[in-house]
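User: Okay, second chain of the day. Same drill as before: sequence in, structure tokens out.
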Amino acid sequence: MQKIRLGVIYGGPSVEHEIAVISAVQAMAAIDRNKYEVIPIYITKQGLWYTGEALLEISHYSKLPELIKQCTRVFITADRGAHYLTVPAKGMFHKAQKIALDVMLPVMHGAHGEDGCLQGLLELLNIPYAGPGVLGAAVGMDKIMMKAVLQAAGIPVVAGVSFTANEWYEQQEEKITQIETRLGYPVIVKPANLGSSVGISRADDRNGLITALDTAAGF
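Assistant: Same drill. Structure tokens below.
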């Protein structure tokens, strides 16, 4: 049986970069190698794409510069229904190499990977991938939008107050009063577009609320 060439893509510029690395290495270790040929695709925090067997070992990430030296920089390409990673030619008399892909498995956390951006790129290149599409990823990542969608569908959600970081910086007294009037204490404060625990705080009084909102707005 011919193996499915599975590109596992992870990393990226998100503040949840390290969590994505752990998730991806665990996922790749669990994949059935009798059915799939696993091709790791690591995106650095600077947005550069790499592949290589060294990426499969979690301990290698503790010395990232050394790890990158063991890997090959690649670019993703699609042409007439064929999907592959391109390794640029090294020198005038060399040809670019192609690493074929059948399907992509995004193992991303946070912005630019879990929010529909990566899904949009794969859609544009017509590359099959696992997980939600652009709309599902974008709505699911934005907690404010997700609550609005659930409420519109008649599904109960926890009461909340939402506003932008700019609104917080410009209207602090108004926003504090709004939260205290509508919700009271204690309250949980978190950024709308990050993972479940990043930037999250509990506030039991006004001073704690100000600190929590400053923390969340910083993301």
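The first strand starts at residue 4 and ends at 11.

User: Thanks, on to the next one.
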